Amino acid sequence: MLSVSQSQEQVAELVARAAKAGADAADALYSGGSATQVEVRLGALENVERSEGEEIGLRVFIGQRSATASTSDFTPASYDALVERVVAMAREAPEDPYAGMAPEDRLMRGPSPDLDLEDAQEISPAEMKERAMAAEDAARAVKGVTNSEGGGSSASRSVIALATSTGFVRGYAGTAHSLSASVLAGEGSGMQRDYAYSSVRHLSEMEDAEAVGRLAGERAVARLDPVRLPSGALPVVFDPRVSGGLLGHLIGAITGAAIARKTSFLLDALGTEIFGPGITIIDDPLRPRGLRSKPFDGEGLETHQTVIIDKGVLTGWLMTVAAARQLGLQPTGHAARGTGGAPGAGSSNLHMAPGALSPKELIADIERGFYVTELIGMGVNGLTGDYSRGAAGFLIEKGEITKPVAEVTVAGNLKHMFRTLVPANDLTFKHATNAPTIRLEGMTVAGD
């Protein structure tokens, strides 16, 4: 895998070759990564895997025609063949009136922020095995756990570099560490599975292995002997394990491409109050050590913190250069891309600000409700906002979480769900998308 400086040299060279071959404009993206994964099961080493890969993608423009191709062969001959192929493809591609590079005056020019994404501390496979063993042992030690799907530990490093024919050449590197355990409780057809994991940029911030394993075991045992709920309307509360998914549905509905195609249930919602006045949702690509932090986006624009929902009001769309041109607006620095194809828009480190009530206070007045810890299936219509997903969790009775619940469906409409949801005060930053416990009113629970 190339270093950041080496990858910058390679993307700059490929863009220069494209210009010499007749491209009116071009950009190139390098993506490289290496990872080590150690898996254990029932106290024994099951697998050690090491993977490395790197690829460079070239996008060229001939007028308003464009094409993209990639290669993992970084030799001069391979570059010549790649450039010749992509330029020829672009000449035959259909015209797109919105295609093109990011405006030169919008490209990142200042110094890159120090996001502290790369951990200098390394971990050996032997140490990874020890952590995975400790997590699984702690999970299996929980009374009621009867089997294990295993424990795992991984460490990875990635490098990204982007160059454009307008003079942008930047790159950055990042590391990631993860630890997980997954176990089963009970016997026969009554067995239940659950898991726990921790993912961080720096190893020093990893959760304790025993704590991760113990949580996985306790979660599995708590799900034993589930009941079915009768169908009907109930207050529904989403645990932080699943509440972040609601933010993902929001992002899918406010990308510039969805608005331009008129395929979003929030098509006419810009500048309106789509959440309650106490709700704020922020995308922050500049969070130090954030799991999706990045100094520039997939088109070379400088990234910045965005308040997507400000006191309930939708402030704007997330747009690539092409979508912005189509909508007559400005790109927002949210372009995300791989080495093949055009950029799309997406979020980075996304979170909903916490509310005022504790989770206990949030459910205290619920006479009978459903506390959701797992969601199954996609079941969301991006055009209408209709929401229907399989779910498991726990019954809420007289303000207390009681019996486990399985094999039910929760349904509603995202417009109503957004407008009436209430967040608790237990926000933590453990994932790329984070939300506190969330209470939703008027949802339908379909069970027996």
Automatic annotation (TrEMBL):
The lineage of its organism: Bacteria, Pseudomonadati, Pseudomonadota, Alphaproteobacteria, Sphingomonadales. GO terms for cellular component: cytosol. InterPro entries: Metalloprtase-TldD/E_C, Metalloprtase-TldD/E_cen_dom, Metalloprtase-TldD/E_N, PmbA, TldD/PmbA_N, TldD/PmbA_sf. Residues 26-90 form the Metalloprotease TldD/E N-terminal domain. One of its GO terms (biological process) is proteolysis. Residues 119-224 form the Metalloprotease TldD/E central domain. Belongs to the peptidase U62 family. Gene3D superfamilies: PmbA/TldD superfamily (3.30.2290.10). This is PmbA protein. Residues 231-447 form the Metalloprotease TldD/E C-terminal domain. GO terms for molecular function: metallopeptidase activity.
